[in-house]
TrEMBL record:
Keywords: Hydrolase, Signal. This is Polyhydroxybutyrate depolymerase. It comes from Phytoactinopolyspora halotolerans. The keyword Signal applies. SUPFAM superfamilies: alpha/beta-Hydrolases (SSF53474). Signal peptide: none annotated.
């Protein structure tokens, strides 16, 4: 166990999976005597990135104390071709999906679904998180990976937050403009909140027809809603300058699906302190903060929520 008095730092925890050891960044909340963490947040970086960059991008670790979150950021094991940054350039092995380089991961690539299961188990035990489940959050390729994990293990996902990368299964091989139903089986509902810019140059809002990305973001949200047994509320609602929201709900509180659409924005994290325009990824809105909305969504859909 981690001593309660040491739970304010950013630690590197080693998680063993399939005869190899992998580092995971962990931020522990400041707890009063007798308190337990409210739950575990797993956040996944985008392709050609790394765990530290993701933590800086989202700032989710900054709300750890207020929400009693344990925030863990594992790192992908796929080295992205052409990346020269010794600390960055990693990607995830999303099952059956090509990487941003256009190729399927090698056959001996780390099983990231199994790896994330191991991360949840290990961190929950070490950090004294009572329920062996996690809020999953991801950006870009990390969002795709988080969604793939949620599809396969909904019982281990408290809620899903996807920024610039919501998927509902891989694209159909014969028609990438639609999700592959064989990769999105029925299961218990998972609350979903997603954010996407209509000008995203990497993961196109309206889809790109590729086997990596494929179908439109609204199709992904609608597919999750259908799986959760939710129906769309009355129309698309404008909630801030340049920002609209599509919401689905049902009888089960866990059926909720929300998609925030940012007009003209690129491949970015809304409200982040990091400006990605210089990397050619487009603009980001300051009208909303994805981190603030994710925080509220996770609070509403906690481990003990009905």
């Amino acid at each position: 166990m981690i001593n309660a008095g040491d739970r304010t730092s950013l630690d590197v925890v080693t998680v063993r999976h399939r005869h190899a050891e992998w580092p995971v960044l962990v931020r522990h909340p400041r707890l009063r005597p007798g308190e337990h963490p409210s739950g575990l947040v797993i956040e996944l970086h985008g392709s050609q990135s790394d765990a530290r960059t993701q933590m800086a991008l989202s700032g989710l670790h900054d709300v750890a104390d207020a929400e009693r979150f344990v925030v863990a950021a594992p790192q992908g094991a796929l080295r992205m071709p052409g990346d020269t940054d010794p600390d960055g350039g990693w990607g995830w092995n999303v099952p059956g999906v090509p990487t941003t380089a256009g190729d399927l991961p090698p056959a001996d690539a780390r099983d990231d679904v199994g790896f994330l299961m191991r991360v949840i188990d290990e961190i929950c035990v070490r950090a004294d998180v009572r329920k062996r489940a996690a809020w999953m959050a991801g950006f870009s390729g990390g969002a795709r990976m988080a969604a793939a994990f949620a599809v396969r293990h909904p019982e281990r996902v408290t809620a899903l937050a996807a920024v610039a990368g919501l998927r509902a299964g891989r694209p159909r091989p014969d028609d990438p403009s639609a999700p592959d139903p064989t990769d999105f089986p029925s299961g218990p509902p998972v609350p979903v909140v997603a954010f996407h810019g209509t000008g995203d140059p990497v993961n196109a809002y309206d889809g790109d027809g590729s086997l990596r990305w494929g179908y439109p973001v609204e199709v992904a949200a609608r597919t999750w809603a259908r799986r959760n047994g939710a129906v769309q509320d009355a129309g698309r609602r404008s909630i801030a300058p340049g920002v609209s929201r599509i919401r689905y709900s049902g009888r089960d509180a866990r059926s909720e699906v929300m998609l925030y659409v940012t007009a003209g924005d690129g491949h970015t994290w809304p409200g982040s302190s990091i400006d990605m325009a210089m990397d050619g990824l487009g603009s980001k809105t300051e009208s909303i903060s994805a981190t603030t909305e994710i925080r509220a969504f996770f609070r509403r859909h906690g481990p003990d929520a009905p």
